[in-house]
Hints:
The active site is at 67 (proton acceptor), 136 (for ring-opening step), 138 (proton acceptor), 143 (for ring-opening step). The chain has helices at 9-26, 41-52, 80-87, 109-122, 159-165, 185-189, 204-212, and strands spanning 2-6, 31-34, 62-65, 67-69, 99-100, 128-131, 153-156, 179-182, 193-198, 230-235. The chain is of the alpha/beta class and 242 residues long. The radius of gyration is 17 Å and the shape is globular.
Amino acid sequence: MRVIIQPDGDTIAALVAESIVDLVNEKPNAVLGFATGSSPLGIYRELIKAYREGRVSFKDAWGFQLDEYVGLPADHPELYRNVINRDIESQVDFAEGRVHAPNGNSEDLQSAGDEYDAMIADAGGVDFQILGIGTDGHIAFNEPGSSFTQGTHVETLTPQTREDNARFFGGDISRVPTHCLTQGLGTIMEARKVALVATGEGKAEAIAELIEGPVSARWPATILQHHPDATVLIDEAAASKL
Ligand code: GLP
């Protein structure tokens, strides 16, 4: 696992976006793994800028989201499918039907998870996975105690994660869904390249565990220590407990 410490999130975003631009220019049908949360937003802004400057086209690329809330209405602004559509998909030139999310409104969530893993495999597997990290060390929505080998599956969100994400739901934790459909750690580990980005002191403990702790389901992100091509990009505040 490579660790890159930079002074701020903008520098990190520019670095990650440049790697993605290079990849897509080299492999136009690259499969990109999109994360939600605030951490990847700078990367999306840089990708949109590169597209507008004519430095990259996504017309043959694919996008697969990490996770989705269970039970949010299709037009809910915080449905992750809508978030990714708003923050990146609709602002560049992805072809119709090329960006996907797990279906958190399926009648049979586990079948929807299995179908999602099959779709990723059919597209050729994820070439570049963008990741954030939760304060409890979760990646995607794999909460502490998650299996290291599972595919896309249903998770119960911890009170901590619901509290962290309440800011996207008007600060009201009761409006944050209790469950989600998430790529498993097994799915994420199959991505050929992974870039995990984190900024701010709130992430410092999770980052210290990720980089210096033992590999343990207590801190799900630690499985990335076994990934053959994972880079952790953090600012000085997120690195403050190393
Ligand atoms: C959510 C997402 C994760 C993300 C995490 C951190 O829980 N499911 O993929 O990493 O939030 O979010 P933020 O980047 O806003 O701190």
